[in-house]
Amino acid sequence: MQPSRRQPAPGFTLIELLIVLAIMVILISMLEGFASGRHQRTQKQLCADNLQKIYLALQIYANDYRGVLPAKTNAATSEEVLDELVPKYSADTTIFICPGGRDSQIPSGEPLSRHKISYAYYMGVRLGDTPNVLLSDRQVNAEPKRAGEMVFSANGKPPGNNHHKYGGNFLMTDGSVQASDAQLTFSLAGRPGVVLLNPKP
After folding, report:
1. Strand order in the sheet with 133-137
2. 121 beta partners
3. Of 101, 162, 194, 199, whose Cβ has the fewest other Cβ atoms within 10 Å?
């Protein structure tokens, strides 16, 4: 009579356990990844820091030009105008790329006009103006907007999706940064002599 073989105990093998763990790690990283609210809140703060660094460059520029900020006749994008800041007023081109978006980094000192930045610019605004918007995250379009309208992407798809579907930041003329949801809570109606320039699509 042959000895009976022992049946393997039911349960996970080491390989199955490792596969389950790998799947769990992938799912957690997806939940906490680029499109998560927590991740984008952190990125919005880093974005606000970038905008304030750009503000310092604009202040120095305005001091050299009697209070006038960069402007260019017939400019179609923010890169064309903000290019005047590099490299004299800021050699750090990383500040023009939103950390929450997926725009490529720009080599230090490279002209902005040859690349794509992340921020929209209100050309024609002056720093001495009562608090008005000077810069913002990329917007859904360059049209004037009223409270209640969408200013940033509502679904995380372009345009206006620097922070996926979690809104964006506005840099004001006093240097403060105001966070906003995708839907505007205040008016950005057109102002005489002011043109909103979105970055390249």
Report:
1. 177-180, 168-172, 133-137, 119-123, 195-197
2. 135, 197
3. 194
Residue type, 136: S
The total number of residues written for the chain in this structure:
201
Phi then psi for residue 179, to 5 deg, are -80, 150
Residue with tokens 């750009």: 54
Q: What is the dihedral of CA 166, 167, 171, 172, to 10 degrees?
A: -130
Query: Which residues have a Cβ under 8 Å from the Cβ of 199 and sit 6 or more positions away?
Result: 77, 78, 79, 116, 117, 118, 119, 120, 138
Q: What is the 3-state secondary structure (H, E, C) of 89-136?
A: CCCCHHHHCCCCCCCCCCCCCCCHHHCCCCEEEEECCCCCCCCCEEEE
Where are the domains positioned within the chain?
35-197
At 168, list the tokens.
């964006």
DSSP string for 175-196: S-EEEE-SB-SS-B---TT-EE
Cα 119 to Cα 133: distance, rounded to the nearest angstrom: 12
Specify the amino acid at residue 73: T
**DSSP letters spanning 133-160:** EEEEEPPS-SS-B-TTSB-S-SSSPSSS
Q: 31-45, pLDDT tens digit by residue?
A: 555 556 666 678 899
Q: What is the pLDDT of residues 148-184, one digit of tens each?
A: 999 999 999 999 999 999 999 999 999 999 999 999 9
Residue percentage of the chain with pLDDT more than 70: 88
For residue 66, the 8-state DSSP code is T
